[in-house]
Design a protein that fits this description.
Helix content of chain A is 69%, strand content 5%. Chain A has 465 residues and is mainly α. With 247 residues, chain B is an alpha/beta fold.
């Protein structure tokens, strides 16, 4: 079997194909590394300035929490360039810091991360390595020659599989090395040892992805005798996995979230609630006239309560809407998991700490912090007030005097801020990352086992005449 | 029934490839109407190169090929009107039927006004099974494809026919049928140049036999001469002898 | 003889399994995606009409709505991603970067940057692959199968043969495109809620023309590689890698390169400039705000309020415009650099024809700014000449979109380059084939 592996490996390695891919791999990984490092440096500067400012000037009027840039984004960006870089929290309300609109005029391109290169370039290369593994040997007449030896079909197939994996891994490893050197050297703060552990895991994840395609190629090559048809079939599958299924899942996702129309309900709901609140506030004047209130304070408390009730309604509406959107997004993502390319992508994101899981993690830490801040405000000021997009201010008559009634305002606490909560972002541990990636990893494993089984059974049965 | 003017003529033909290999070394041969010339030789002796040069697939280094008196490099299109070609081991157009293949090549050869029956007649002549006439070629055996290839040459009705290894891989029955057709065509006055390994068939059908070695025509014998000499012995002797000096 | 070649080649394509497969896949995908996109457009359009009605009722404010482009059904472009609502008030000049008109947060960031499946995508990615599958064997398979020699052993000049292959290949490819396009256009026209103007129809014709140009590039490339490479499987491999580079990798890289070559000033810089403007106006703004808050404010006070706020807005708008201009420059650099990729050229032309690119958006925003200026003028009129104000009316919002002629004038260079690509590849195939060693 070693002979088989050696011969096939040398065959692959000596082809022009291999040299081209090797060069291309080094160039692309290098480009990806440089681009990443530049962008990361900017993100890092932004993060530091914002967070130091927040630390120096803590305030009960609101806090800005910026997410620490993830050092491992070069492996799988996870759409993070489209996510908010952080949140402004105030009174339990979260406002995303707007996504940098800098380049909305440029075409939206997927990030040039490892995941992209693997899904688009390397998986294709594995197909090109493996498509004629069996059919080509049949066509050349060498399959019979080989099998006329005490080797056995199983060992032959295993040998072919190993040679494909080896030939694909070499340019990939070279690219990884180049990428790590660049990132390690130029990234502000470099890469920690724990990070390297994750990098290694992703490296093996990639190998698992290659393996999938290797088995698929061997399967088709055993089933179809004409090499050119094998290649066509494999490419159709590749296009499906890498392009059609993920793109279709967006379409389906949008279909799922088509109704109710976001802007429509937002436009109608908020003004409705505002009118209600106004009406009720107007009603308060009547109640004052009827003598329902004894002190000015009571009036203020009542108007505050009405206002906050209205606020709560609006908040709940948006929260429900966001929850429904997330649900639909999750469903779409689940649908896209039919494609192993998606499984690979999501697993890589989870390990790197980017993507949906990463954002969810940050958000939950923000919520925790928000509760701590609210607790502080409650202790020092007695009341937490949320700033609203709309406010009101009106005059009323109470016991013959004019008083001004207005929407509640948050108070700025100027006393001792030494025990104001500090935000310390915790990166999810590797164990937690594995837990979130578990489903996708299992999926990849299942694909591998399935395809391996099919490939072996096809090859063991293939007609060698 | 040989008349004087040869239809196929190679005049001092030499071919040196870009990598330096001398494939043909001052080859002179001619084939007259009604004559079958068999070109024997080992692989790489220059037989296929000779045919390629006649068909202007490659230009010669020196020398000229004439088909029906026309210089093949000067006026290739005119020259090709007078020659038909049977290639070795050709797959033809698999998705088309035998008749459709024949129709296509007939039209290319200038015979645009033929009817279905004309095609059927030719295919019968080469002993192709009737039921194969309208079957897709991709399912044909080698012998069937070979017969179809010959019918393509016959239907062009050109005065010269070039064949490259026509009997390689044919079973004895098919090879015999092939020889019968060659004899018929010869009697119709065609000039036939055939390259082959097959000494025995060459002896049977060839009016003249030439042996090529390393690009040179080292020996030529007529049918009468071969009645007294053992072609097999001559051939093997030449194969065994020292490589010719490089010129 | 030429006709014989062309007829046989076309029949060969039509009989092949890969053509049938490719055609079925294309037809299914185009039908599905067009249906979905039509529905999506209809919903957005209805939303737009409803919103218009609502906002007209809300007569206190002036609002401008941006409706969906009908041709975004075929080419999604940026149309759906950009803002829809501009609220006009004296203190803010409508800007591309202002909150409501900004790029909307994508709903599904994990999936956000994949291309949408629209007609343009299917031609750019799926049909170009299909063309490669058809073209890779044009010459190589004939050589490998031995029929090339048989054909050329006849009185047929080589250039005629190659031309015949080109003509037949293009006929098949463009035929498939015609079928696909017809399907898409039929779906468009049949839907009751979709109305196409004459200009739209011309633009659709333009889209079909540029799609044909685009696919021809890939056929010519396929023919060229098929001539140069003897083994069909190797030819296919080479073509696939070329495809990945031209359609996927290079456009991506050129955008990244443009971002580096034309860097934009940082957020902080822009924010600082705006803060400087606000500093200059701060005192005045405070003053006019206070005066307006008092019960004793006069018409003069109100006028001054308008003037100060609008001046402040104009100054800030200058900062925004400058930044916007730089963004556009960056975008144009990206377009230029990516011109080496036929896929990018195709995209640019399709987006411009469909009015889903940035240019349309810029024209809209320019119109919005013009409206704002009229609005402010009229507002001032209220306090300077109340009678005239009562008689006057705020002009309706409108902006002049490029006419079909103007669009064609803008895109013909890209179309020309696409044509040149085809020409170059075919010439290379031609010269290669004439010299080809047929042994």
């Amino acid at each position: 079997m070693k002979t088989i592996i050696r011969r096939e490996f040398l065959d692959h390695v000596q082809s022009l194909q291999f040299i081209v891919l090797f060069a291309l791999s080094v160039v692309l990984f290098a480009a990806s590394g440089f681009v990443y490092v530049r962008a990361q440096a900017e993100r890092d500067v932004y993060y530091r300035t914002q967070m130091t400012r927040a630390e120096r000037h803590p305030s009960t009027m609101g806090a800005r929490l910026v997410r620490r840039p993830n050092a491992l984004g070069f492996m799988a960006a996870g759409g993070d360039q489209d996510r908010p870089s952080g949140y402004d929290i105030q009174g339990g309300e979260f406002t995303p810091i707007p996504v940098n609109p800098r380049t909305f005029k440029l075409p939206a391109i997927p990030a040039l991360d490892w995941s992209f290169l693997i899904r688009v370039l390397f998986s294709l290369y594995v197909i090109l390595l493996g498509y004629d593994a069996v059919s080509g040997e049949k066509e050349r007449g060498t399959l019979r020659l080989i099998l006329a030896n005490p080797l056995g079909r199983v060992k032959l197939l295993v040998g072919k599989y190993c040679s494909i994996m080896a030939a694909a891994s070499v340019p990939f490893a070279a690219g990884v090395l180049v990428s790590l050197i660049i990132v390690g050297a130029f990234l502000p703060g470099g890469l920690a040892a724990a990070d390297l552990g994750r990098v290694l895991f992703v490296f093996f994840l990639v190998l698992a992805y290659f393996s999938l395609f290797a088995f698929l190629s061997l399967l088709f090559s055993s089933l179809i005798s004409r090499s050119s048809l094998v290649l066509l079939a494999l490419l159709a599958v590749w296009v499906c996995f890498a392009v059609v299924i993920p793109s279709s899942s967006i379409v389906i996702a949008e279909k799922l979230s088509a109704a109710p129309s976001e802007t429509q309900s937002a436009r109608m709901f908020e003004p409705m609630v505002q009118k209600e609140v106004w009406a009720k506030i107007g009603g308060v004047q009547e109640r004052v006239n009827r003598g329902e209130f004894r002190t000015e304070d009571e009036i203020h408390r009542e108007t505050d309560r009405i206002f906050e009730e209205g606020q709560a309604k609006v908040t709940e509406f948006y929260a429900n809407y966001a929850r429904a959107e997330n649900e639909r997004g999750r469903k779409a993502k689940a649908m896209s998991r039919i494609s192993p390319a998606a499984l690979f992508q999501y697993a890589a994101e989870d390990i790197a700490g980017t993507g949906d899981a990463g954002e969810e993690n940050f958000l939950s830490q923000c919520r925790e912090y928000s509760r701590a801040v609210d607790g502080f405000i409650l202790r020092k000021l007695g009341k937490v007030v949320r700033v609203s997009r709309w406010s009101f201010s009106t005059n009323m008559e109470f016991q013959g005097k004019p008083i001004v009634v207005h929407s509640p305002q948050p108070q700025n606490y100027t006393g001792d801020m030494s025990d104001f909560p500090k935000f310390e972002e915790r990166r999810p541990g590797f164990g937690q990352a594995l837990k979130s990636a578990f489903g996708d990893l299992a999926g990849l494993l299942v694909w591998n086992i399935l395809l391996a089984g099919l490939a072996f059974s096809a090859f063991l049965r293939t007609d060698v005449r | 029934m040989a008349t004087s003017q040869p239809i196929l003529k190679a005049d001092d033909l030499s071919m040196r490839y870009e990598d330096g290999v001398l494939a043909l070394d001052h080859l002179n041969l001619d084939v007259r109407p009604g004559e079958v010339y068999c070109l024997l030789g080992a692989n790489g002796a220059g037989k296929t190169t000779t045919i390629n040069l006649f068909l202007n697939f490659i230009p010669p280094t020196t020398g000229t090929c004439f088909i029906n008196g026309i210089d093949v490099t000067k006026d290739p299109l005119e020259a090709k009107k007078y020659v038909a070609f049977v290639s070795e081991n050709v797959m033809l157009y698999g998705n088309f039927t035998a008749r459709q293949n024949l129709d296509f090549f007939a039209k290319l050869g200038g015979k645009t006004a033929l009817a279905k029956n004309d095609y059927y007649q030719v295919m019968r002549r080469v002993s192709l099974q009737e039921k194969a006439f309208d079957q897709r070629v991709k399912n044909f055996s080698k012998g069937m494809r070979q017969k179809l290839g010959i019918s393509i040459a016959i239907i062009k009705d050109a005065p010269a026919i070039l064949l490259d290894e026509p009997t390689s891989g044919l079973d004895p029955k098919a090879a015999t049928e092939f020889l019968e057709i060659m004899a018929e065509l010869k009697n119709e006055g065609k000039a036939i140049l055939m390259s082959t390994h097959d000494i025995f068939r060459a002896k049977e059908i060839g009016d003249r036999v030439g042996i090529m070695k390393e690009g040179r025509l080292v020996m030529e014998r007529t049918r009468q001469e071969l009645q007294y000499e053992d072609l097999v012995k001559i051939y093997i002797d030449y194969m065994k002898s020292e490589p010719l000096a490089i010129s | 003889m030429f006709k014989t070649i062309v007829v046989r080649e076309i029949l060969e394509y039509l009989k092949s399994a890969r053509f049938a497969l490719g055609l079925i896949i294309t037809v299914v995908l185009i039908a599905a995606s067009t249906l979905i996109n039509v529905e999506d457009y209809v919903l957005r359009h209805q939303d737009f009409l409803d919103a218009k009605k609502e906002l007209q009722a809300e007569s206190r404010r002036v609002n401008i709505l941006r409706g969906p482009q009908v041709l975004s059904i075929l080419v999604r472009g940026k149309d759906k991603d950009l803002g829809e609502l501009v609220r006009v008030w004296v203190g803010d000049v409508p800007s591309e970067l202002s909150g409501t008109m900004d790029v909307r947060k994508p709903k599904f960031p994990s999936l956000a940057r994949l291309s949408a499946v629209d007609f343009a995508f299917l031609v750019r990615v799926v049909m170009s692959l299909m063309v490669i599958f058809l073209a890779y064997g044009a010459v190589a398979e004939e050589k490998a199968g031995g029929t090339l020699k048989l054909v050329l052993a006849n009185a047929l000049p080589r250039d005629k043969l190659l031309l015949g292959k080109l003509v037949s290949g293009l006929a098949v490819v463009l035929g498939a495109l015609a079928v696909a396009s017809l399907l898409a256009v039929i779906f468009l026209m049949l839907h009751p809620a979709v109305s196409l103007s004459g200009s739209d129809i011309l633009r659709i014709a333009g889209m079909m023309a540029v799609s044909a140009l685009y696919l021809s590039v890939f056929y010519a490339l396929g023919l060229f590689v098929s001539v140069k490479v003897d083994r069909p499987a190797v030819a296919l491999m080479v073509l696939l890698q070329a495809w990945v580079f031209l359609v996927v990798l290079y456009p991506n890289l050129s955008v990244t390169l443009a971002e580096r070559l034309v860097p934009l000033p940082s957020e902080q810089t822009v924010a600082a400039e705006k803060a400087a403007v606000e500093d200059r106006f701060r005192k005045d703004i405070q003053e006019v705000n206070e005066k307006l808050g008092q019960a004793t404010s006069t018409a003069e006070d109100r006028l001054r309020f308008n003037k100060v706020w609008s001046q402040n807005a104009e100054e800030i708008h200058k900062v925004d415009s400058e930044f916007s201009r730089l963004q556009t420059r960056q975008m144009k650099s990206a377009e230029l650099i990516s011109s080496l990729s036929p896929a990018s050229l195709y995209d640019q032309v399709m987006n411009r024809l469909a009015r889903t690119d940035i240019r349309e958006y810029e024209l809209f925003m320019e119109g919005a700014v013009r409206l704002w200026r009229s609005y402010v003028e009229r507002l001032n009129l209220r306090y300077t000449d109340p009678d005239a104000y009562k008689k006057s009316q705020l002009p309706d919002f409108g902006y002049a979109s490029d006419s079909t002629a103007q669009t064609i004038a803008a895109v013909w260079p890209q179309a020309l380059v696409l044509f040149l690509f085809s020409l170059v590849f075919f010439t290379l195939a031609y010269t290669g084939f004439l010299k080809k060693d047929l042994r």
